[in-house]
Amino acid sequence: MLWACVLLPQLALDGVLRRRPPSDEPLVLVSGPAQARVVHAANPPARAAGLYRGQRLAAAQALLSQFAMVEHDPDDEARWHRLLAAWAYRYSAEVGLFAHAVVLEVSRSLNLFGPWPRFESLLRDDLKELGFRHRVALAPTPHAAYVLAGVHDGMAVMSPDILRQALSPIAIAHARLPPEAAQALPSMGVRTLGQLMALPRASLQRRFGGELVAQLDRLSGDEPTPMESYRPPDTFEQRMEWTHEIEHVEALVFPLRRLTGDLAAYLAGRDGGVQRFELALEHRSGPPTVVTVGMLTAGRDATLLFDCARGRLERLALTQPVVAMQLLARELPPFVPAGRDLFDMRPTHAVPLEQLRERLRARLGEASIQHLRRTVDPRPERAQTCAPGVSSARTITLPRPTWLLDAPHPWRGPPPEILAGPERIETGWWDGGDLRRDYYVVRTAQGQCAWMYCAPGEQGAWMLHGWFA
Amino acid sequence: MGQVVALDSLLHARQVWHGRATPAPDSSQPTGWPDLDAILPAGGWPEHALTEILLPADGVGELQLLLPTLARLTRAARSVVVIAPPYLPCVAGWEARGVAMAQVDIVQAGERDVLWAAEQCLRSGSCAAVLAWPVQADDRALRRLQVAADTGKALAFVFRDRRHAVQASPAALRLELESTPGWQVRVRKCRGGNPPVGAVPLASGWS
Which of A63, A165, B17, B107 has the most CB atoms around it within 10 Å of its CB? Predict the structure, then answer.
């Protein structure tokens, strides 16, 4: 077994930063009771000004006059944590959640994603794209990977033999041991994990209880780590909230890109697609504005999802400022990737046809793209439809025009010259749409070939129904 | 024999201009009308370029002109997009002329969105041909379509009223359809050669 650990040292802060456009503005997360507010996390510009975690807010305000303050929300942090677990699920079937970290079993994933250095860079690229700072380590046990990720970013220990060697120089304070042991051991002269592991087990157990020994066994792999394996939920729900109100749709584009990106990452992990999702724009008062985004087929490409959602959103006129946005996807049908011809002649940068259709639909309306097909009905008005279905196999050998008028209208010009006909169409008595017509192919005085009809047996009162264009 | 050598040396010295030294390569996009192919400098539709078709009225054979090309493309499983047609395409009529309707997307767009939609389709590179009926298109708009057709390596066809013939156009090929006395097509402009003087009569057909 090999476990990769993705440690997220700034999970709460990254969760807040990724919902706002990149900027150099100092920002801190604050927590604690109203009387004793402390800095929970500070972004790099704020840290450069001397702010640090655990600092009193009053002290921070004395150091820096202008900075953005966001209330730390543990639920929010947990949500990002779960999102990253969903993302990791794409790479491994066994994903576990540790505090501020996600561990995944990768020994079998390596066959698919390539040797560890390549796999590691895949993980890092994804995390960078998602906007989370991270440290990655690999070890034969999840706990060792967790400890190593905290100490050496990028460390990879492939075999249990050298694991002990890699663990021994680690200071007790960094070894994620039970707190009372971590506090007592250095004062007893035990400063590194190596020293600790060399001590007799029996006396350790007597002095610190079973927890420390069990922890050491989990580190070295002598005892399996009890862990609840992550299972992705069946619906996707992600919410973003701002401290300020957003009045223009354009300002929603950046958060929207994040939300659709998260949805795409989640879908890739689940190997699913989405055909329909909802964007709920929440206001200070009143019900939220719900925008439903539907697509022709299930998709999961981040650009496609973003394009579709953006098109729908841009046509929206905001009546009230938006304070939060929620993306909700309930129906997650299986994803069937579109097949592409090996000898495809299209340019390499071509936009897939599906994506093009979605883009057109997003701007021109849901019903703007039609595929016409033949039906079995001989009546010209009902002989074709744009409803989905299978085209009828019956072929017509009689002359048919290339343009069809929406509705026949009376011909006002001089009587046309008859080229062919008549073709009598007399049917439809059973559904109320009955008609009796003699169709002719005619040429008008302007030289156009037209498809006209008149009452059976007559050759006058021409009705124009199509053009042989 | 001596004179032949002299002519060669004249040509080598670039003292004699060699008009149309090499015949233009055969286009890979024949129009399906041998008479028309014969007079077009490219031997067919200009590839990856805009073709403008000027009409005296709707329904004078503009589709007859294109349907052989559309049939060839759709049967090769290439996509064709028809944007804002003046009437509904009649499926039976198109299929009788060999077009596979499953490959044809009909886009209903408002007056203001026709050019936008045409440009998106051309630029995407996933359509083999785009047919558009813009209501108003100026020189700049057509140039954009020309550039988009080049980017997406597609055939672009724009149908406009005959009264626009007097305006300059960036299209690589301009054809004018005439329905009287017979059905014929006149080349107004073609890239890579002088437009032929006479009109080309095409076999009129309603079937």
Answer: B107
Residue A333 main-chain phi, psi, to 5 deg: -70, 160
What kind of architecture, by CATH, is found in domain A236-329? 2-Layer Sandwich (3.30)
Quote the pLDDT of residue B112.
84
Q: Does A363 touch chain B (CB under 8 A)?
A: yes
SS3 label, residue A195: helix
Report domain extents, chain B: 33-182
Token pair, residue A247, equals 């009045």
- Measure the CA–CA gap between B100 and A361, rounded to whole angstroms: 23
Measured distance CA(A177)–CA(A180) in Å, rounded = 8
**Nearest CA among B150, B153, B186, B184 for reference residue B170:** B150
Contact B206 A395 (CB under 8 A): no
Backbone angles phi, psi at A218, to 5 degrees: -70, -35
Task: Per-residue pLDDT tens, chain B, 207 aa: give them.
Answer: 555 567 777 777 777 766 654 555 566 788 888 888 888 888 889 888 999 999 988 888 888 889 999 999 999 988 999 999 999 999 888 988 889 988 999 999 888 889 999 998 998 888 999 999 998 888 888 999 999 999 888 999 999 998 988 888 899 999 998 877 778 888 888 887 788 888 888 876 665
Are A281 and A325 within 8 A, CB to CB? yes
Sequence ranges of chain A with CATH classification 3.30.1490.100:
236-329
Cis omega (within 30 of 0) for bond into A140: no
Phi, psi of A420 (to 5 degrees): -155, 160
Give the integer Cα–Cα distance in Å for B143 and A326. 42
Which residues on chain A are in Cβ contact (under 8 Å) with B204? 449
**Alpha-carbon span B59 to B131, nearest angstrom:** 15
ipTM for the predicted complex comes to: 0.84
Is residue A353 less than 8 Å (CB to CB) from chain B? yes
Cβ burial of A79 (10 Å; 0-12, 13-18, 19+) is middle
Instruction: Pick the more confident residue, A397 or B44.
Output: B44
Contact flag B116-A372 (C-beta cutoff 8 Å) = no
State how far residue B38 is from chain A, nearest Cα, in angstroms: 23
Local structure of A386: helix, strand or coil: coil
What is the CATH class of B33-182?
alpha beta
Q: What average pLDDT does range A88-104 have in this prediction? A: 88
B79 CB near a chain A CB, below 8 Å? yes
